[in-house]
Amino acid sequence: NNVTKKWIFLKASSAVLIPLMVWFVLGLVSVFDKNYVDIVDFFSKQPSRFVFSLFFFVHLSFQILSEIRHLIMDLGYGFELKTTKITGLIVIFGSIILTVTFYLIGKNFI
After folding, report:
1. Class of residue 89 by CB neighbours under 10 A (exposed 0-12, middle 13-18, buried 19+)
2. Residue 4: exposed, middle, or buried by beta-carbon count in 10 A (0-12, 13-18, 19+)?
3. How many whole angstroms separate alpha carbon 6 and alpha carbon 8?
4. Rounded to an integer, what is the distance from CA 19 to the centroid of its chain?
5. Within a 10 A sphere around the Cβ of 54, how many other Cβ atoms?
6. 78 with 72: CB under 8 angstroms?
7. Tally of CA atoms within 13 A in the half-sphere of 94 that contains its CB
8. Which letter does DSSP use for residue 33 in this model?
9. At CA 19, angle to CA 17 and CA 23, rounded to 5?
10. pLDDT tens for residues 2-29?
11. For residue range 33-61, what is the model confidence (pLDDT) as tens digits?
12. Which DSSP string do the residues of 47-91 spell out, in sequence order?
């Protein structure tokens, strides 16, 4: 069954990518020959703070919406070609909208 293969691949890739993500974060911190205060100072100055926050929230919102989409697909819905294209666009544009919303909330505009 194609759905089962996709589900198994999704779970297996998550099992591989999560340790790689932890390794990357730990490696990112240890690569710099600086102490903790210098690294915090780097991420708290513009433009690094904005770029890091932008990428973080785009990734976070895209991942959340993609997982919701996959949960619905795990239930057996949304496999028609037109539906997959529409839900894919919803995930892409929804992540942009959520990122802007997070930014506005962070700036106390909302």
Report:
1. exposed
2. exposed
3. 5
4. 16
5. 14
6. yes
7. 16
8. S
9. 110
10. 788 878 878 888 887 788 777 767 766 6
11. 777 787 777 778 777 778 778 888 888 89
12. THHHHHHHHHHHHHHHHHHHHHHHHHHHTT---SHHHHHHHHHHH
User: In this structure, which amino acid lies at residue 31?
Assistant: V
| Alpha-carbon gap, residue 56 to 50, rounded angstroms | 10
Could you tell me the two tokens for 67? 């997982």
Tell the burial category of 53 from Cβ atoms under 10 Å away from its Cβ (0-12, 13-18, 19+): middle
pTM above 0.85, yes or no: no
Distance between CA atoms of residues 18 and 41, nearest Å: 27
Which tokens go with 106?
């962070």
pLDDT category at 89 given cuts 50, 70, 90 is: very high
Tokens of residue 24, six digits:
């990357």
Peptide bond into 47 cis (omega under 30): yes
